[in-house]
Structure formats: structure tokens, C-alpha cells
Amino acid sequence: MIQPINDIAAAYRGRIYLHPRVLDLPRAQQLFWYTHECAHQIFGPGEAAADCWAVQQGKIQGWLSRVELTRLNGSMRQFPRDASHEDGAARIAHMEKCFAE
Questions:
Q1: What's the superkingdom here (predicted)?
Q2: What is the model's pLDDT at position 82?
Q3: pLDDT tens-place string over residues 58-73
Q4: Domain residue ranges of the chain, discontinuous segments joined by +
Q5: Residue 9 to residues 20, 60, 66, 92, 101: CA-CA distances in angstroms?
């Protein structure tokens, strides 16, 4: 579902919500956020697992190149830490390791 929420994307009880601003992002970032939320449906609430799975799926499926990962990292760098998310720098470091695997 596309609707304004207090995050860029979210997953709840079999539904994925994307903030309308996701549609303004480059295609690889749109797919990353959608795939990240799919991962929550599969693996549960862990952000690190969702980030990693989304990055690995993007690499396997060919829509996330090294260049696109760098662009994604640039957009996430300023993300603050909150109760369920590491800060952007920590998430980026983890995603880089997942991409390298």
C-alpha cells in the first residue's frame, strides 16, 4: 500500500506500506525498500536481517549493483538510531558485508 506513514516503509500483518516519497527514489532504492519489507514478512522484525536479505536479493536479481548500493548508502547515512533501528552508519556497514558475501 502507498500511503503517508511515519517511516519510509513498514510491514504489518501481511501488508507492506510504502511512503509516497519512495516513488521518487531511484528504481533500485524502491526495490530495496519493498524487498526489505518483504523480508520482515518472512523473517520478522529484525532490521539487520531485513537489510541483509534485501541487499542479497538485489545482488542476486541484478537490480542492486555496487554503484546502486553506494547511492542507497548515501541516502541512509543520516538515518538516526531509534528503538528498532541502528543508525545509518551501522546499517550501511552491515549491508556492505552482506553485499560482499
A1: Bacteria
A2: 86
A3: 999 999 999 999 999 9
A4: 26-100
A5: 9, 22, 23, 17, 25
**Number of CB atoms found within 10 A of residue 42's CB:** 10
From the list 15, 21, 17, the residue with the least C-alpha distance to 2 is 17
Q: Tell me which residue has cell 524502491.
A: 30
Cell of 44: 520478522
Q: Are 95 and 52 in contact (CB under 8 A)?
A: yes
DSSP code, position 80:
P
> What cell does 88 get?
545509518
Which residue's entry shows cell 511512503?
19
What element of type H or E holds 12?
strand 9-12
Query: How far is Cα 65 from Cα 82, in angstroms, rounded to an integer?
Result: 28
